[in-house]
Amino acid sequence: KSEEAYEARDKAMAALFLIERISREQIRNLSVLDLNLEEEEIRLSFKKEFRHIKKETLWSLRNYLRGRTRLNPITDWVFVNKKGIKIAESSFKGFIRKLKRLRCEVI
């Protein structure tokens, strides 16, 4: 079950990166307090106001958050690792490299 939660996490991170064009740093620094999914908005760290997100991203975030508790988070950061803490910069960079390779293979 936790593997499904990690897949959902990766899809949500990919949606924020590819669809919303949000930077790695901003994605890593998202707190659950920065999410207003009822209004389809997120707040980015460098801005105080909320920003509208697309339906695909909203779906990915909701799907991930439904299963996030299976990852035993001990932090308010949205994206957590196997220890339940904020995903490491190096892990996130590796994820982005993998994502770019996959995208090139699809194109």
Structure description:
The protein is built from four helices and three strands. It is mainly alpha-helical and 107 residues long. A hairpin with a 6-residue loop joins strand 2 (41-43) and strand 3. Strands 1-2-3 form a three-stranded antiparallel sheet, with no helix packed on it. The model has no long low-confidence stretch (mean pLDDT 88). The chain has helices at residues 2-19, 24-28, 55-67, 89-106; strands at 35-36, 41-43, 50-52. It starts with a helix and ends with a helix. Helix content is 50%, strand content 7%.
Primary descriptors:
107 residues; mainly alpha
Which helices and strands occur, and which strands form pairs?
Elements: H1 2-19, H2 24-28, E1 35-36, E2 41-43, E3 50-52, H3 55-67, H4 89-106
Antiparallel strand pairs: 1-2, 2-3
Helix pairs in contact: 1-3
